[in-house]
Design goal:
The structure holds 2 protein chains of 2 kinds. Chain A is mostly beta strands. Chain A has strands spanning about 5, 10-15, 20, 25, 30-40, 45-50, 55-60, 65-70, 75-80, 85-95, 105, 110-115. Chain B is an all-beta fold. Chain B has no helices and 11 strands. The chains are: A mainly beta, B mainly beta.
Chain lengths: ~120, ~110
């Protein structure tokens, strides 16, 4: 079965330190890859996506993610965390060429940035 | 643009009652979808539509119906509510290509007693 794994339920990081939120996937072929963020009592907001080209993708609010085909990973990173980055982060994939819009989401990782 | 709007924001139902969750978008997006969000399970796709008159099932469609009579609206119907349908429901829309960004509504929190 196709799936997305976010192995950490919660990540704690001190403000100013680099952060990483992990995502691995098990999907046939090369999927389209996405990161979304959810603030309390809000809908999800788009952060960044990988479609093709450079494996390092830059997105909103200083976030970036690296597509690693051999490790089937798409980890989210930021060089210097802010308290305002504290939120719930979701990785999502959709198989390329599947002909469907059946996005597969991970279970989410709660990021807590400590002042 | 208002983006994606959902009503109501919060609803309490008794087991067996029916209701419709409303979703509308004013961006002329072709693709719309419904998800439910449960703790520890992320978002799971219920139903989606690739255009007016076309709908398909997602991962967890049982107990839910949808229709898409216009591009703008994509209501989700609970036929006979069950406690297992207690969740937060999100509607999303996408311009038209599968790799484009999804725009999410603010969500509807549903409690079934």
């Amino acid at each position: 079965a196709q799936s997305v794994a976010q192995p950490e339920d919660q990540v704690n990081v001190a403000e100013g330190n680099p952060l990483t939120v992990k995502c691995t996937y098990s999907v046939s072929g090369n999927p389209y890859l996405f990161w979304y963020v959810q603030y309390p009592n809000r809908g999800l907001q788009f952060l960044l996506k990988y479609i093709t080209g450079d494996n390092l993708v830059k997105g909103s609010y200083g976030f970036e993610a690296e597509f690693n085909k051999s490790q089937t990973s798409f980890h989210l990173k930021k060089p210097s965390a802010l308290v305002s980055d504290s939120a719930l982060y979701f990785c999502a994939v959709i198989p390329r060429g599947s002909g469907t819009y059946k996005y597969i989401f991970g279970t989410g990782t709660r990021l807590k940035v400590l002042a | 643009n208002a983006g994606v709007t959902q009503t109501p924001k919060f609803q309490v139902l008794k087991t067996g009652q029916s209701m419709t969750l409303q979703c509308a978008q004013d961006m002329n997006h072709e693709y719309m979808s419904w998800y439910r969000q449960d703790p520890g399970m992320g978002l799971r796709l219920i139903h989606y539509s690739v255009g007016a008159g076309i709908t398909d099932q997602g991962e967890v469609p049982n107990g839910y119906n949808v229709s898409r009579s216009t591009t703008e609206d994509f209501p989700l119907r609970l036929l006979s509510a069950a406690p297992s349908q207690t969740s937060v429901y999100f509607c999303a829309s996408t311009p038209g290509r599968v790799y484009e960004t999804q725009y999410f509504g603010p969500g509807t929190r549903l409690l079934v007693l």
